[in-house]
Amino acid sequence: MYRKKGIAMRQTSSPAAADARWHPQERRAFLYLPLLALLVSTVVELFNHKAFTEGPASFWRYLSDEPLAFLVNILIVLVTLSPAFFFRRRAFWCALVSFLWLVAGGVNGFILLNRMTPFTVADLTVFETGLDTVPNYLSTGYIVLLAAALAVVAAGLALLFWKGPRSHQPARARILTGAVAMAVSSILMGGSCALAFATGHLSDQFANLAFAYEDYGFSYCFLQTWLNRGVHRPTGYGRPAVEKIANTVEEKVASQSADAQTDVNVIFIQLESYIDPSQIQGLELSEDPVPNWTALKAQYSSGYLTVPVVGAGTANTEFEVLTGMSTRFFGPGEYPYQTCLTDQTVESVAYDLKANGYATHAIHNHRAAFYSRNEVYPNLGFDDFTALEYMPAVKTTPTNWAKDAVLKKQILQALDVTEDQADLVFTVSVQGHGKYPTEQVLEDPAITVEKCPDEDYRYAMEYYVNQVHEMDAFVGELVKELSQREEKTVLVLYGDHLPALGLDAADMESSSLYRTEYIIWDNFGLEQQDEDLAAYQLSASVLGRLGITTGLMNGFQQTCREEPTYWRDLRMLQYDALYGNGFLYGAQGRYAPTEMKMGMVPIEITGMEQRAGDWFILGKNFTPYCVVTEADGDLLETEYESPWLLRLKEEPDTTDYRELEISVVDKHNEILSNTE
């Protein structure tokens, strides 16, 4: 208090009043944030258009052709920065959000260097899968350097949180400021999006995910892969609509007179990144790298196969082949294996053949948990699943993928483990997987590149065609073995997608990046019928040639492909099966998940003995992923010696082998199964 002209006056410049005033930095924040959003968006788009590796030409084209789309991306980043006004630690919030956007953009740039499909929210659902493949793309030194950089950034963010500048505004003023900032940035973003949609500069329908990212920008497309998910409810959906389609299918199927051949083994082999190199225009090789494929294509049913992905996304081609459903109805970049199929069943070629008395086997020479196959396959009707962890020691490529030669024994074993039953064997290979080294890693390649459409990819192409050459040899040996067996067999071979080799549609004989090829081989004289198919039509086509019409989706794909309402009806059935009420399943209800076994043959302990102070476990069908487990669940340090011998590297609590069991443990220490 002080007095002026006899009147008591209260001091008006209290600390609280001072806090309520806007300091210069408070006012400048409204300018800094848009500039920061512009900077972050620019760096992210430089990654998105591979400007750091291939030059800025694509980025400049994006800016000149799609300035409105770029503005939308800037405003999306700005909206995520605007909550900074709610907090005292505004600098920390801005640094954290900017770092996350830059990391996402950097991850996208890295992915685009190694595959043709950009980074999506769906990739976060397979985060562990992605981490599992990193050593195949980066050296240990790069991984260590990256980890160190992330540690430095984390330390910097922590320091900024504790020691960085803080806003002087009181809580009420911060809430008001934050609300205004969020409202203004959101209105600007919404208006820009509306204008971009109205003028054709944005779309939420991505026919080609990679092209959408190039045209519309990373931030917008990445959010679309999060917000636009699942199959949207079709107009007119309900029991009458579904039953009308079902009745039409049943009538069409009933009019067919072919007898079902349910004594024929059906083998599918999905070949990783497999194409006939002769499909690449301008590529000249020392010799045909796929002579078996060439011969089979000339003698048996074949054609182009339209697949939903390019350069990556194996699981989505697999989903289409197994279910007869199209991934085009899902959100961009979505993996049904990570969403709708994790907790529910759906009609599949496995269930359709099980209804005809078949045993159903799945085989994959990579990790069981890759794309959550060990969780999804029971919902697709498989009796057993043999993954890498259940195979004896396998040979690997220079980039550390298992070679496909190991699959021949597994496929033949699947045919032998069942008695008086025909078999479905669905096999997914992995040898052709990228990354394809851009330096020479093959000292004496069987196939050499004489001319390459892009010289920057010469060594990568040479590496790829030699892997394909070995995959072709595996196919030839398998066909030879199957030809000598008395059982009638159909073998379906197809590539899941094109390899990530920087190819354009103009480089391909098919004029498409979404076309591989398929072959249907048999040993009992099926008529050769060449036609182009989509992946979701392939299994129905194969079963149709055998007269097997079981299953509504199977029957639909066999009889309704030429109907004018095909796409509308397919979407209706697909929504009903995956997200709707399941009217198509009728009175019997949804399929029951199978009690799927891991591995075709049982792993057994038959004894234990001590040699030179070490304990050895005797048994059958051991693999390098087998770990001896004590009765209390403790895992003993175990070393693989052979399929019938394991060595313990520590002393067991018991000398009675009957008190021990075998756990199959993957590289991430997840227990996949235990012996009884």
Structural overview:
This protein folds into three domains: 20-227, no CATH class; 259-550, Alkaline Phosphatase, subunit A (3-Layer(aba) Sandwich), CATH 3.40.720; 602-674, Sandwich (Immunoglobulin-like), CATH 2.60.40. 41% of the residues lie in helices and 14% in strands. The chain has 22 helices and 20 strands. A nine-stranded mixed β-sheet has the order 12-5-11-10-3-8-6-7-13, sandwiched between helices. Strand 19 (661-665) and strand 20 form a beta hairpin. Helix 2 (24-48) packs parallel to helix 6, helix 11 crosses helix 12 and helix 20 (535-545) crosses helix 21 (552-559). The chain is globular and about 85 Å long. Mean pLDDT is 89; it is low at 1-21.
